[in-house]
Amino acid sequence: MKDFQPQNEEVKAIRVLLHGPVGAGKSSFINSVNSVLQMRMTNEALASSTTSDQSFTIKYQTYKIKKEGKENIYPFVFNDVMGLEEKTGVKEEDIKLALKGHVKDGYKFNPVSSLSDGDHGYNSSPSISDRVHVLVCIYDANASEMKEPVLQKMKKIREAASELEKLYYPS
Questions:
Q1: Which of 150, 117, 104, 134 lies closest to 33, judged by CA?
Q2: Residue 38 CB-half CA count within 13 A
Q3: What residues contact residue 108 under an 8 Å CB cut-off, 6+ apart?
Q4: What domain range is 114 assigned to?
Q5: Mind listing the pLDDT tens digit for each residue in 94-141?
Q6: What is the CATH number of the domain that holds 139?
Q7: Could you tell me if 101 and 127 are in contact, meaning their C-beta atoms sit under 8 angstroms apart?
């Protein structure tokens, strides 16, 4: 990890988007990776310590991990998002826009309506570095059962990511 560099020189950092149900541990995962690489406990991504059916994370937030003893960062970043909920939470359309690089860092998700062109948090001309390069689904293995609407959202997001892979990386 310490010597990794993206193959494409236009990509400043590999963008890893974490998504999944509310309370699955997306923010905690970011903190765990950061803690391992820093070789000390860190808590950059704020996470709720209580179980809730509402997302603690409300913004599209980019987390960069500093290299030990240096001022520069690792060539990958994590994006944390609001959790997927049965009726509210992050909209699957917002995740699809994030995959394409259209969501600006710090955008506060609106659980009522999706981001659209012209909105304050919309990036109308994303660079290759703004796009998501890796999509990771986080879910709680101890959760009793995932609700069908949340599973359907996750399926649609995965399908959209697969379509983008074909578009950006044709075989």
A1: 134
A2: 17
A3: 58, 59, 121
A4: 14-168
A5: 999 999 999 999 999 987 899 999 999 999 999 999 999 999 999 888
A6: 3.40.50
A7: yes
